[in-house]
Design goal:
Oligomer: single chain
Distance between the termini: 30 Å
Number of helices: 29
Number of strands: 17
Largest sheet: 6 strands, antiparallel
Length: about 625
């Protein structure tokens, strides 16, 4: 949870160092090990050192000629390869990632981010050319926000830091708030007008022509030779092992939020294997629910932690429902994004910090990367013939209870137009046809005011902001769009910020670029044959996980815990947020409709409780408006 500040003037003047210091002072939690300043002609940079990673304290760094300045919040996983290529092996030994980035930008210019592996956000300024490059890693694990003005450009790790600069307005972005209520807040938007996020996998360039933002990362996939499923499983295991090792290697003390799901227990098991080979140790933390056993996962998680030789701390969460500690806990100034698990996360982060953990891992991206969101029967048909595809379809039907006709219609017929349409022929028409077959955009929440939705053109805005993959093959495109969904990157951003306030760095081995590219390059029918969730990931862990845990691994849903908090234990708080709604006063929602729908949710009407996720988004926005914009 380190961070950065950067300010550059575009009018020949020197940026105000006091403004940069105000930005730094807004996030003292990111500078627990201190802050370092550097200035260059036209620019000022501050590195905020959180002290959780074993990285040389050289950021910000300048070149010998005093021409270039780099500030970085980064952990480079291909440090040795970069250092060798750049002819500076000493930088790898010193773990000097900032100077490596300086050398990379000097060698490759704006293409430097394409050569990097790891989690990073950095800014590089060339004073002689008046040229700035900023970039963020492909999965958005390190945050970066900016404000572009006619005479200056400001960049920081948190929105609140930019708001600390005198003259930066705090007017809210109403379209972004409406999109938040609808469940899709836009790729580059923040909750404030004039402040934007640099999206994951993008770079920002400032030169004489102005400011532009463009994607620098696009997975490259090739067909390759046909391989056996066990070979793909081995490839997945080896790549995930390296991702875990890199995150352990860079930490001053590692922890893991360990559920009973395959994503986190795989990290734990591999960490145990690495521990036996001399890697740093890891502590694990599991949420427990005595009152709601259907939410409890300690049977699997404790067995895995014990087998791996990792300490496992149980964190009782029966009393950590959403809004449990309201108003002491809630949204922060950056925006209304907030997990329903935020109270539990708060307790876990506090305990991990007390235990000496500096880097707290999750398996957040595993569901998107290897989960059951994509079932590729057409790929199975092409690879192994109609009999194999029919066997998978029959197995899918038997396991789920769905008729074969329903499975065929949903997983084959609906995907047929997008699959047979040539990859390079009218991709926009193919996407529109696929959207129609999938039922189009999800309906807007029933309490959202229709006139406001029309004014802000929500359906159009939401559709335009989604990732549109150009990878070959329909199933691969769908997987890429799931993995690259900007809301997933926003979730990582929110988790990073919540952990940062506790002095912790967030890391996720499943977000590793090498792993993402490896999975996207695989035949997609290998990942979830017959619709079996995480089949390949489960096979990859054969012989690594205890067999009983490998077979039983399944993430228990905490939804009953969340629902009980929102609809029962926290109902008085909810009703206080409904009464005199600030969102209603701004014309976003219908307060009476909110009351009516909430009453129906409390009565457990299925048609109403289906909207509880959207209702939570209203509650977080309402909390945010009352705290910061009343």
């Amino acid at each position: 949870m380190s961070g950065l500040i950067f300010a550059v003037r575009r009018d020949g003047r020197q940026p105000d160092l006091d403004d940069a210091r105000r930005m730094a002072a807004e996030a003292p939690h990111r500078a627990r090990a201190g802050a370092r300043e550097r200035t260059l002609e036209g620019a000022v940079a501050i590195h905020l050192d959180g002290g959780q990673e074993r990285i040389a304290p050289t950021s910000p760094v300048t070149d010998r000629g005093g021409r270039r300045l780099v500030v970085a919040d980064a952990r480079l996983d291909n440090r040795r390869e970069l250092a060798t290529t750049l002819g500076r092996p000493d930088l790898a030994e010193a773990r000097d990632d900032a100077t490596l980035l300086l050398q990379a930008v000097d060698r490759w210019g704006d293409e430097a981010p394409t050569h990097l592996l790891g989690d990073f956000a950095f800014v590089a300024w060339d004073a002689a050319r008046g040229h700035l490059l900023a970039a963020r890693d492909p999965m958005g694990m390190r945050p970066l926000f900016y404000r572009a003005e006619p005479a200056r450009l400001l960049l920081a790790s948190e929105v609140s830091q930019l708001l600390a600069v005198p003259g930066v307005p705090s007017a809210v972005n109403e379209r972004a708030l409406m999109a938040h209520l609808a469940g899709n807040a836009g790729q580059g938007w923040t909750a404030y007008e004039g402040i934007r996020r640099l999206p994951a996998g993008h770079r920002l360039v400032l030169d004489t022509s102005g400011v532009r933002v463009e994607r620098f990362w696009q997975p490259v996939v090739g067909e390759g030779r046909a391989r056996r499923p066990e070979e793909y499983a081995e490839q997945l295991r080896d790549t995930l092992t390296q991702a875990v090792a890199d995150r352990l290697d860079g930490s001053t003390g590692a922890g893991l939020l360990l559920s009973g799901g395959l994503d986190s227990i795989s990290i734990a098991a591999l960490a145990g294997t690495l521990l036996r080979d001399g890697a740093p140790p890891m502590r694990t933390y599991t949420f427990t629910y005595d009152e709601l056993p259907e939410c409890d996962e300690r049977t699997v998680s404790h067995a895995v932690a014990s087998a791996a030789g990792l300490p496992n701390t149980w964190l009782p969460c029966d009393d950590s429902w959403p809004l449990a500690d309201y108003p002491d806990l809630g949204t922060d100034r950056d925006g209304p994004d907030l997990f329903r698990s935020y109270v539990s996360m708060h307790g876990a982060a506090a305990r991990a910090l007390d235990d000496g953990v500096g880097v707290l891992m999750t398996g957040q991206h595993g569901d998107q990367l290897v989960g059951s969101g994509v079932t590729d029967y057409l790929g199975r048909l092409r690879a192994d013939g109609p009999l194999a595809a029919w066997r998978d379809l029959a197995a899918h039907s038997a396991r789920t209870g769905l008729s074969r006709r329903v499975v065929f219609e949903h997983y084959v017929l609906r995907r047929l137009p997008g699959a047979v349409w040539p990859d390079d022929r009218l991709p926009a028409v193919r996407r529109r046809l696929r959207s129609m077959l999938d039922g189009g955009a999800p309906p807007l929440p029933p309490w959202l005011r229709a006139d406001a939705a029309r004014e802000h053109r929500l359906p159009e805005v939401i559709g335009r902001s989604a990732l549109r993959s150009t990878l070959p093959g329909e199933a691969r495109r769908v997987r890429h769009e799931i993995v690259g969904d900007h809301q997933i990157a926003r979730n990582s951003e929110t988790l990073e910020r919540r952990f940062a306030r506790h002095g912790l760095r967030h890391a996720d081995p499943w977000s590793d670029r090498r792993l993402v590219e490896s999975v996207l390059a695989m035949p997609q029918h290998i990942l979830t044959p017959a619709g079996e969730a995480k089949w390949l990931a489960r096979e990859a862990m054969r012989g690594v996980l205890p067999e009983s845990a490998r077979v039983a691994a399944s993430k228990a849903t905490p939804a009953p815990h969340y629902d009980r908090g929102i609809l029962d234990r926290g109902s008085a708080t909810v009703r206080s947020l409904l009464d005199g709604s600030r969102a209603a006063a701004r014309g976003y929602v219908d307060e009476q409709a909110l009351h009516e729908w909430y009453d129906r949710m409390v009565a457990r009407e299925p048609a109403a409780t289906a909207h509880i996720g959207a209702f939570w988004r209203f509650l977080t926005l309402e909390d945010w408006l009352r705290r910061y914009h009343d």
